[in-house]
Amino acid sequence: MLLLPLLSLSALWGFVLNLTVSDGWSLLRGESLYQTVGVTSTELGVQLQAERERTLLKLTHGEPSAELGEQRARTDAALHDFRESVREAERNLTDDMRTPLNTVQAELSRLHAIRTGVDGGFSTRMLDLSEYNRLLDAMYRFYDHLAPAPELAIYQQVTALQTMSNAHEYLLREHALVQAAQLDGRLTEGETTAFTEYASSRKFLHARGQAGLEVELRQPYADLFKSEEFLTFATMEARIIRTGAPPPDTARWNDAVGKVIAEFDRISGQISAELGGRAADAATATRIQIGVAGGVGLVAVLASIIISVRFGRRLGAELAGLRSAAVEMSQRRLPDLVRRLSKGEEIDVTEEAKPIAVTGSAEISDVAGAFGAVQDTAVRAAVGQAALRHGLGQVFLNLARRKQGLLHRQLALLDGMQRRTHDPDQLEELFRLDHLTTRMRRHAESLIILSGSAPGRAWRKPVPVIDVVRAAIAEVEDYTRVEVANMPRSAIDGSAAADLTHLIAELVENATIYSPPDTAVHVRGDRVSNGYSVEVEDRGLGLQPEEYEAYNRVLREPPEFDLADSDRLGLFVVAKLAQRHSINVLLRRSPFGGTTAIVFVPDRLITDQPELPEAKSDELPSLPGRTRKKALAVVSGTHAGLPRRVRQATLSSRLKDAPPPEPEPERKNERSPDEVRDLFSAFQRGTERAREEADEKGEA
Question: Cβ(149)–Cβ(86) under 8 Å?
Fold first, then answer.
C-alpha cells in the first residue's frame, strides 16, 4: 500500500531529474564541442578563405608567390588542430553531428588534390573557386549543428547569426573573384554568372538573417547597410553585374569592401558575445534547475521514504496485532468454544465474546470492532446452535426412551404370548413379530446413542463372543444370509457386550443391504495378541479408495452428528459406540470385491474361557429367550438371555458325521393334528423350562 506511491514519487523524481540533467548534459556537451571542434573549425574556415583568395591571385599571375606558401602552412596547421579536436571530442558527438562532420573530413581530404591541380597548372580560377567553395560549404553546414543553444529563443538568434555569417562568406567570394579579375582587367562569362549568384545569395541571406534577429541585435546590421561604405560596395556590385567587368576604381572597391568586411566581423563578434552571455546565463539557470530538481526532489523522496517507513512500521504493527487477534479468534477461541459446546459445557457468552483489544488508527479500530461484532455473532450462533442440538438431542432421547420402554413391554407381551400359544402357525407369526420388535429396539437405541447417552442394557458377567455375534445377527432383517465361522472361546466384558452387539449388528445389516441378495455375508472372529478381531465380509461392489478413506476417518474421529446426513446414520452409530469403548473399526476392500469391516476389541474388554464339553445326543441344551428362526428350527442354548443358533446342535456325533440319508418319498398326513399339537406343546414346555434356567443363571 505504501510502496506504490513511493515508487511513483521516485519515478516522477527520476523523470524530472532526467529531463533537467539531459538538458544540462546537452549544454556541457555543446560547450565542450564548441570549445574544441567549434573553435578549430572556425579558424580552419578563416584560413581556407585566405588560401582561396591567394590561390586565385596565383592563378591570375601564373607564378607562385611566397604569401601562398605561408598561407598553406597556416591552413595545414589549422587543419591539424581541427583533426586533433575531433579525436578528443569523439565521445561528445551526437548522431546528427557525425554526418556533416564526416562530410567535412571527406572534403578536407581533397585539399591536397586541389593544391596539386593549382600547382601543376591544371586548374582555372573558376574551377579553383568552386573547389574551395565546396570545402567552405561543408564547413558551414557543420557549423549549423555545432552552435550550443539551451533555449529556443537563443537557438533562433544563433541560427539567424549563422545565416548572416553565410552571407558574409558570399561577400568574401565576391571580393576574391573581383581581386583576381582586377589583375587582367576582365571577368569571364562564367565568372560574371558566379558573381551574380554570389550577390543574389548574399542579399537573400542578409534579408533572412535580419528577419530572424531581435530588434536590438538587428540594429547594428541595419546601420551597416545604411553606411556610406556599404552603399558604395552595393553600387559597384550592381555595376559589375550589369557590365560584366571589374570596377575601374580598384582602390575604392578594396577600401569599401574592406571596411564592410571588417564591420561585419565586428558586429558578428559583438552579437556572438551577447548570445554567448545569454547562453551562459541559460546554462547557469539550467544547472540551478538541475540542482533544485535533484536536491529538492531527493530530499522529498528521502523524506517520503522515512515517513513511509515509520508509518508503514506503525501500520504493520497495528495490522499484525489485528491479525494475531483474528487468528487467535478463528483458529483457537472459536474452535475451542465449539469443542466445549459439543461436550455439553455451559458457556458464558459475555466472557467468551470479549472485544478484540487492538489500539491504533481509527480504521484499525473500526476493523477490530467489526471483527468483535463478527466474533460476538459467531459465539452467540454457536451457543444457540449447541442449545438447539442439545434440545433436539433431548427430544430424540426422550422419544427413544419412551419407544424403548414400549418396545420392552411389547417384547414382554410377545414372550408371554409365545409361552401360551400352542398353534405352530401363530407361534411362527409371533416369532416374526418378535424379530421386528427387536430390530425396532435397536433403532431406538441408535437414537439414544446419537443423542450422547447410553442405551441402558448391560450384563454383570462376561458374555461369550459367539453369543454377542449371534445376538447381533438376530437383530438383522436378512439374517438367513449370514454365515458365522467357528470362533475361539472368549468373552466380552458385560458392560460393553450390548454396545458391541449393536455395533456388529449395524455392520452386518449394512453388509446385507449393499450386497446381492443371493450372496452370503461371512462373519468370523479370532483371538489376537492384544485383543479380539471380528470380521464382517460381503460380496458387494465395494467402494472407491477415497470413499474408504473418508469413512475410516469418520470411524477414527467421529464428528458431531449432522442431522442433514441421515444416509450415514449407521456409520455415526458405529463410530460413537467404537469411540465409547476404544474399539477400532476399519473398512477395506475385500479380496472378493466387496467390503470387509474389521472390528478390533482391545484386550482389556476380553476374557478367555475354557472350551465347553460336547453335548450328548440325548441332552437338550437350553433354549434362547427369543428364537429368530422359524418355529420348527432347532436352536442351541443361551447365555444370559443372548440367542445362539447352532445348526444340528441336538444331533448326536454319529448322526452329525453320518452321510445324509436318501430322500424318502413324500408322505401326506403322516401325523394327525392332535399329534402335531402335542409335539409343539412339548416343545413349548421345553422352551419355558430353558428360559427359567437361563434367568436363574443370570441372577446368580
Answer: no
